[in-house]
Specification:
Elements lengths: L1 H38 L3 E9 L11 E7 L5 E7 H12 L13 H18 L18 E10 L5 E9 L24 E14 H4 L7 E3 L7 E6 L2 E6 L33 E8 L2 E4 H8 L14 E5 L2 E11 L2 E9 L3 H10 L9 H12 L15
Antiparallel strand pairs: 1-4, 2-3, 3-5, 4-5, 6-8, 6-10, 6-11, 7-14, 8-9, 10-12, 12-13, 13-14
Helix pairs in contact: 1-3, 6-7
Length: 386
């Protein structure tokens, strides 16, 4: 149900976007002319919104409602906010000793507002279609709400007027595109925020628990000549010019992190593999570069290499670092690991207060117990990972 509801709302929104200009041309000018005739050009009409439901900002106000019957099934409603009525009555009857209160509106004041709304309706009635004969009773979602702002030309104060119209009485036109007015090349230097994914690899949970600063994680599913760009729902692999400055070497004594995919652990959970991904933090690239990526051209994105890169498991950032190239694969040299709460407690137990030296042995036992803890619920595991 939720997907259908969302899709329907999207269609309605796009439909009203295309019809907005028709409502503007057919209603604003007619209402403004009628207002000028009724009040000698005291007010200005502005169209704020066209919607399938009443503007949420307008729902908080009190309104004077004028109902105009079209036939037994169709009505038009004019809802004038308290602020709107206040400025209209002030211009009509003069400023009163107290601020206008809609709850205390007099019969004369009500007649002035109703007469004004009737006059406005007569100005827009030529745009409305005749109601169908033998039609069905309409429902709430068959109504179009036009929200206007009426401004006093002298004081610049104003309020809202909401006109509710049965959709079946309207035949709006859509704005038709007449062709592209601009060439993409006009905006080649403009930038857009994208995510760039470097690669993925399988990682033992046992190794994940012991990641440290300066470790290097190699991404087996990566290629130094390609990366993946992600922009909203758009994903595409693209070819790049590798940066030679990222090339590094690893020996067995440099503190690099090495995995043995066949290693076994006495703990079943430690031997499970999870997928780790390497992804740049949101980066800016030009529309020109984006266009080249779409066309399959080789792209030089040297500016991207200056951005921080994150290691993610199940979309959770577990570490950050800098991109390196090892042989023909990308890797990440870790400069920060985001410790779990258990790891923070380990540090606290590892540095007990000096005045409690006699409890050192107890701290060591507790530290060892905490180091063995690991919250496996952080990660969702597929069958193939076990």
């Amino acid at each position: 149900m939720s997907e259908t509801f969302t899709e329907t709302n999207t269609l309605i929104k796009d439909e009203l976007y295309g019809q907005y200009n028709w409502f503007y041309l057919n209603f604003v000018q007619a209402l403004q002319q009628a207002c000028n005739e009724f009040f000698s050009e005291l007010f200005t009409f502005k169209l704020l919104s066209v919607s399938k439901n009443m503007n949420i900002l307008a729902q908080k106000d009190d309104y004077f409602v004028t109902k105009i019957r079209i036939d037994s099934l169709h009505d038009v409603f004019f809802r004038s906010s308290e602020a709107t009525i206040g400025i209209i009555l002030e211009e009509s009857l003069g400023k009163g000793p107290q601020k206008f209160d809609l709850n205390k509106i007099t019969e004369l004041e009500g007649k002035i507002i109703s007469s004004f709304n009737d006059y406005l309706y007569n100005s827009i009635s030529p745009v409305l279609l005749s109601p169908p004969v033998g039609g069905k009773k309409r429902k709430n979602y068959d109504t179009i709400y036009l929200t206007f702002f009426i401004q006093d030309n002298k004081t610049k104060e104003g309020g809202r007027l909401i006109i509710a119209l049965p959709q079946i009485l309207l035949a709006p036109n859509f704005v038709q595109a007449t062709g592209e007015k601009f060439d993409v090349s006009d905006f080649r230097t403009s930038t857009v925020d994208v995510a760039i994914k470097v690669g993925t690899t399988k990682f033992l949970v046992k190794d994940l628990k012991h990641l440290e600063k300066e470790d290097i994680v190699i991404f087996e599913n990566s290629n130094i000549q390609t990366m993946q760009i992600i922009y909203k729902d758009y994903k595409s692999n693209f070819r790049i010019t590798p940066n030679p400055g990222l090339i590094t070497s690893i020996d067995n004594n440099d503190g690099g992190h090495h995995m043995d995919g066949n290693s076994l652990s006495q703990n079943l959970w430690d031997s499970i593999q999870v997928e780790m991904g390497a992804e740049f933090e949101t980066v800016k690239i030009s529309l020109g570069e984006l266009k080249n990526i779409e066309q399959g051209l080789v792209v030089d994105i040297s500016s991207v290499y200056d951005n921080k890169i994150s290691l993610k498991v199940e979309n959770k950032i577990i570490a950050t670092g800098e991109l390196v190239i090892v042989n023909d694969r990308y890797g990440v040299r870790i400069d920060e690991v985001f410790a779990s709460e258990a790891s923070k407690q380990v540090q606290e137990f590892a540095n007990p207060p000096t005045e409690h030296q006699e409890e050192t042995h107890d701290y060591q036992e507790e530290t060892q117990a905490i180091e063995e803890e690991f919250d496996y619920s952080d990660f969702e595991l597929d069958d193939q990972d076990i």
